[in-house]
Amino acid sequence: MMVTRAADWVLAPDPHGGPPIHAAECTTCLEESPADTSREIPDVWCMRHCAATGHTGYRVTATTFVRAGRPPARQGL
Ligand SMILES: [Zn+2]
Predict the structure, then answer these.
(1) Residue 73 placed within a domain
(2) Domain count along the chain
(3) How many whole angstroms from 19 Cα to the centroid of ligand 1?
(4) For site-directed labelling of 1, which of 48, 50, 55, 57 has its Cα 20 to 30 A away?
């Protein structure tokens, strides 16, 4: 992300972005879990994938949505 004048901008959770989305990917065969707002779905997928394949490494991601905007006016200046 390129920010030229970070002090002029702030990031806040995107009210239209929804909750974080969790997913996992096997680092051995690159198969992907279902993505879900619950962390439990990819976690259970990892354990089942390990039981089925013996693959033990996973890349777990949480995607969140933010929105840049102007900071609120500071009081007392
Ligand atoms: Zn795998």
Answers:
(1) no
(2) 1
(3) 27
(4) 57
Q: How far is the CA of 53 from the centre of ligand 1 (A)?
A: 6
Calpha distance 13→67 (Å, rounded):
6
Distance from residue 64's CA to the centre of ligand 1 (Å): 25
**Mind spelling out the 3-state secondary structure of 49-64?**
HHHHHCCCCEEEEEEC
Q: Which domain holds residue 40?
A: 24-65
- Give the pLDDT of the chain (77 residues) as one tens digit per residue: 555 566 789 999 999 999 999 999 999 999 999 999 999 999 999 999 999 999 999 999 999 999 999 887 766 65
Cα separation, 45 vs 60, in Å, equals 11
**What predicted TM-score, i.e. pTM, was given to this entire model?**
0.74
